[in-house]
Write a sequence for this structure.
């Protein structure tokens, strides 16, 4: 345990330092913003997307790792010769292949995030999402609230961990 978080990852040492720092920052923000912290998901959306779940008591329940939107598009282009096409844009109902690809990869990431929130939800408790990373601004408009996009959330977490002492992981 450290930074107010109980780590249930197995083995605990395999949880990446970036994910631990992200969780520490999310927990600090959740505690600071409410009298009784609610559960939250901490998401780092970059080359890969990590979606980590913290319950209201600060227990790290586990998380997901999936390819980020650009990595998904790159894999499709490399493995499907017919789909090496110019990039598209997100649409709710895409009507071209480039737009279907662009919309599909964003929806895949959003689906993973929203499903983790559903799994954390208890009764009328709202599950907040803290989102950071290079693809955060691409994904954020397609997520439900409450949502907070925070630049440098991992670095914020490093500061939280440094302040909580040497036994923070």
């Amino acid at each position: 345990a450290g930074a107010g978080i109980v780590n249930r990852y197995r083995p605990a040492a395999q949880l990446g330092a970036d994910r631990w720092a992200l969780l520490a920052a999310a927990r600090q923000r959740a505690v600071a913003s409410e009298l009784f912290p609610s559960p939250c998901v901490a998401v780092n959306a970059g080359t890969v997307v990590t979606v980590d779940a913290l319950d209201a008591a600060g227990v790290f329940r586990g998380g997901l790792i999936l390819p980020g939107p650009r990595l998904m598009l790159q894999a499709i282009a490399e493995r499907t010769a017919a789909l090496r096409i110019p990039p598209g844009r997100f649409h709710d109902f895409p009507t071209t292949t480039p737009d279907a690809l662009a919309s599909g990869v964003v929806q895949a990431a959003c689906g993973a995030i929203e499903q983790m929130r559903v799994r954390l939800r208890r009764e009328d408790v709202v599950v907040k999402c803290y989102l950071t990373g290079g693809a955060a601004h691409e994904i954020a408009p397609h997520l439900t609230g409450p949502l907070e996009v925070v630049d440098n959330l991992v670095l914020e977490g490093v500061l939280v961990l440094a302040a909580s002492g040497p036994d923070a992981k």
